[in-house]
Amino acid sequence: MDPQLPSEPWRTWLEAGARRFLLFARDQTRSEADARDVLQEALFESWRRHGHAPPPEALVFATIRRRAIDLARREQRRERRELAAPEWFGTQSEEPGLDAELEHAVKALPPHLREVVVLKIWSALTFQQIADTLGMPLNTAASRYRYALEHLRESLKELRP
């Protein structure tokens, strides 16, 4: 038997409890994706700790809850760091309200453009590093950055005198 595949008792146990576990994970998190991630982490942790025998369901529910709390804390820390980032880098503008407008414009970018902007500006990565990080060609990273800047200029042009 392949050690990577769950044993028959695990498969039977998962089939019986998967929906209840996912429902609980959804209740503990902000999104479907977060719920699935938390559930996967909890099931993996349970499998790692208990090996061949499925754990008691109450223990899995407790693990899901802990993983959801950990995720929420990570998100809160990330949000605090992002809010503090302009202070750290001295990039706050002198015009009141412009920072909020810029943040809104960046958040409104399509995700594939936003991630390049964040990595280039706030992480100070080169286009080669961005391409390696995101698994894309160098020219794609550079062109996405250029398109993102065009989007930002367009969305912010009414703020300029």
UniProtKB/TrEMBL annotation:
Q: Can you give the residue ranges of the RNA polymerase sigma factor 70 region 4 type domain?
A: 101-152
Q: Which UniProt keywords apply?
A: Sigma factor, Transcription, Transcription regulation
Q: Which domain of life is it from?
A: Bacteria
Q: Which InterPro entries match?
A: RNA_pol_sigma-70-like, RNA_pol_sigma-70_dom, RNA_pol_sigma70_r2, RNA_pol_sigma70_r4_t2, RNA_pol_sigma_r2, RNA_pol_sigma_r3/r4-like, WH-like_DNA-bd_sf
* One GO BP annotation of this record: DNA-templated transcription initiation
Q: Name one GO molecular function term.
A: DNA binding
- Where in the sequence is the signal peptide annotated? none
Annotated RNA polymerase sigma-70 region domain ranges read: 23-78
The record's listing under Pfam families reads: Sigma70_r2, Sigma70_r4_2
Report the family membership.
Belongs to the sigma-70 factor family. ECF subfamily.
NCBIfam families per record = sigma70-ECF
**PANTHER family xrefs:** RNA POLYMERASE ECF-TYPE SIGMA FACTO (PTHR43133), RNA POLYMERASE SIGMA FACTOR RFAY-RELATED (PTHR43133:SF25)
Identify this protein by name: RNA polymerase, sigma-24 subunit, ECF subfamily
| Organism, scientific name | Chthoniobacter flavus Ellin428
